[in-house]
Amino acid sequence: MAEIQLGAVEARFADMIWEKEPVTSTELTKLAAAELAWKRTTMHTVLRRLCDKGLFQNNGGVVTSLISRQEFYARHSKKYVDETFAGSLPAFLAAFTSEKKLTTEEIAEIRALIDKAGE
After folding, report:
1. Above 80 in pLDDT, residue 2?
2. Which candidate, 5, 60, 79, 82, has a CA 20 to 30 Å from the CA of 73?
3. Which pLDDT tens digit goes with each residue over 78-97?
4. Is residue 2 part of a domain?
């Protein structure tokens, strides 16, 4: 599947859709007006772009995702680690934690993820 690139505003709008889906285009128009100060035409233009990119579908005025939020961000995270750290997750974590001290809860979550991935 081709990579889907989103700008900051498109990503924010996509997050709104993922949070509310299934959502009617009427409700999206109201949400976009309230949260992004968009007019109806702007919302429809951006929604059409996101549908054309294969992220969402608009059937009969009801918008649903074709790719989950988790899958979308997982793909982008993997691509970032591949391109920036030659695919090395340990190198990524070393860089990430060099600037940020992890909480006990974060360490436990990471350990649980590693254990699950190793199964």
Report:
1. no
2. 60
3. 888 999 999 998 898 889 88
4. no
